[in-house]
Design goal:
Bound molecules: zinc ion
Strand content: 15-25%
Number of strands: 5
Distance between the termini: 37 Å
Strand order of the largest sheet: 2-1-3-4-5
Low-confidence stretches: none
Number of domains: 1
């Protein structure tokens, strides 16, 4: 794990405290690294209409994009779960859209796992399929 990976995990850990998750009770934080060197954070935001819930990963990615970033390189996810929690399918597809290559998953117990997006989402749909 690189020093930047550790920093991403720390930022994800901090932002998970802002999660709005009265239904699932799970608090997840994410931090994405842009090519510029800046880090953008996101947490899960649930809604009484469950389908309107937004995952921490997408909140972080959308925050980076809204700040004008175009190149995103790595993303860390932190949860208080038995195993480091993997991103859902929707978030994997959004990560593919913005070419995020590395995903670092960690839990509060200090366990972590790193995977390439290609491992998480093989044979993904992309713009060439349109
Ligand atoms: Zn997700």
């Amino acid at each position: 794990m690189t020093e930047m990976d550790a920093r991403l995990i720390e930022e994800a850990k901090k932002v998970r405290e802002f999660a709005h998750s009265p239904y699932s009770k799970i608090k997840i934080g994410a931090a994405v690294l842009a090519q510029s060197g800046r880090i953008y954070r996101g947490c899960n935001i649930e809604n009484a209409v469950y389908s309107l819930t937004n995952c921490a990963e997408r909140t972080a990615i959308f925050s980076a994009l809204a700040a004008g970033e175009e190149q995103l390189t790595a993303l860390a996810i932190v949860s208080d779960t038995a195993r480091p929690v993997p991103p859902c399918g929707a978030c994997r597809q959004v990560m593919a859209e913005f070419h995020i290559q590395r995903v670092i998953m960690a839990n509060l117990a200090g366990e972590s796992k790193e995977m390439d997006l290609e491992e998480l989402l093989p044979y993904s749909f992309d713009a060439q399929d349109l």
